[in-house]
Amino acid sequence: MAGVTARACANIALVKYWGKRDADLNLPAAGSLSLSLAALVTETRVEFDPALGADLIELEGKPAGTAEAGRVSRFLDLVRERAAITTRARVTSHNRFPTASGLASSASGFAALAVAATRAAGLELPPRELSILARHGSGSAARSIFGGFVRMHAGDTDESSYAEPITSSGT
Length: 171
Description:
Layout: E1 4-15, E2 20-22, E3 27-28, E4 32-48, E5 56-59, E6 62-63, H1 66-83, E7 89-95, H2 105-120, H3 127-137, H4 141-144, E8 149-152, E9 163-165
Parallel strand pairs: 5-7
Antiparallel strand pairs: 1-4, 2-3, 4-7, 4-8, 5-6, 8-9
Helix pairs in contact: 1-2, 2-3
């Protein structure tokens, strides 16, 4: 399988979701509105490699810590399940802005991971499904799938909690 690189932008919530209704599914307690920040980009590369015995996760040029690697591997398990593969992956991710500075680096990171991993696994998911999948990694990642102004739907189920871009009405 070929490696795929994807980019996603951090976002800032203009109307926040104020917590989680379901922590396992990252379902927000309420909907939200955000703005993507085009200058704050995460770039992530995923390559599924049959020679690997475990996922190899590199963040900011260093091997990921145990907790971070576990979180990424659990997310990759969702992609593997969807793609009906068991192949382990090599993941490299870099933020083009300060990590852990309150600028939604996990949102852009998991959004980029969702796009790169699904495409590397041979999946072509529509934007709504990518948003739902990204939300499993980070609640705010659902919004980072898109640019511009984005609305997050709280939804009552896994499938009804997703983000979508807000487009201009042309008026």
